[in-house]
Amino acid sequence: MWMFPRAFEYYYPVVDRYLRSVSVHDGGDAFYGDCQAWILGCAIESQFHWTDGSRPPDYVIAEIRQLSNFVRGHLHHYSLDAGEQIRIDKCWEKLGMTLSQYIPSTEK
Questions:
Q1: pLDDT for 35-48, tens place per residue?
Q2: Residue 75: CB atoms within 10 Å
Q3: Do residues 81 and 34 touch, judged by C-beta distance below 8 A?
């Protein structure tokens, strides 16, 4: 969770792949998906608050935007509990608000 930006950039694809593939409907380890989806959203959001102004590169921000849309559209993959789905969604909504401060390089 507390990776410096370069390490985060390197490992981000693992997080993306995991969140797109996990589902409570698969059973087993996925039971913990609700907590993982929430904490991973918080960890990603924290990458935009370094005191030196560091942040992920533009291409990673674009990928995070896509993942955020995916997570928020598939909350049922991470928890069967409506309250937990709301908690996950709020975390990713906060991330979305942070991302809205960064205009994709294709729109500049």
A1: 799 999 999 999 99
A2: 18
A3: yes
